[in-house]
Amino acid sequence: MDEFTKVESTSLSAFPIAKAGYPFIGAAAVTTIILAILGLKFLTLFALVVTFFICFFFRDPDRYIPEKNDAVVSPADGRVILAEKVDKNPFLDGECIKVSIFMNIFNVHVNRNPFSGSIEKIKYHPGKFFTANLDKASKDNEQNALLLDIEGGKRICFVQIAGFVARRIICYVNEGDRVKRGQRFGLICFGSRLDVYLPSETKINVTVGDRVNAGTSILGYLT
Fold first, then answer.
1. Over the stretch 140-174, which tens digit does the pLDDT of each residue have?
2. Per the structure, how many domains does the chain have?
3. Active site includes 192?
4. What is the pTM of this model?
5. Of 52, 21, 51, nearest in space to 34 by CA
């Protein structure tokens, strides 16, 4: 039986919510109250539904991380839309394996580190907002790339990519930070995509169409 562990403290809330969602939830709640005071019943009901949905969107559940030293975990909840070798890319030298995960608005959007190591570089690139499941989103959309230096001189790059609805990328870590596999490192608001670039010799554990969960699903094994 596989063993799992927690890399962060357990939330004290029965329904934990990411702090980045508080302003959105507060604005929606205030709007609901104002509409209720004005006696606009239909708009009040609509605003209430929106408020509950925003709370649902920013949920931040605790996760148990698999205890396998060579396992690369998914940085995001969602569906695998690409898992293949690529000859070149903007982040790592030479051939590598690219795994792309599409997050729709119903997925948990808190992102987690795919592996333990040191954040060597963070590169933000402003761009467009094409639908995140399109191939051109990897190249043209607004994105935030994190280059992770791991033991043995290997590197992993994972890229937060904004989508058609997403308009804000949030990253909690900084260059030079030591991070743990499965630890939270950021989120993207309202639908997006994560691209992961792995060493070419990585043994892939997912295929296109698979559903994955951040921190718990294993994308592959380093060799």
1. 678 899 999 998 789 999 999 886 665 678 999 99
2. 2
3. yes
4. 0.87
5. 51
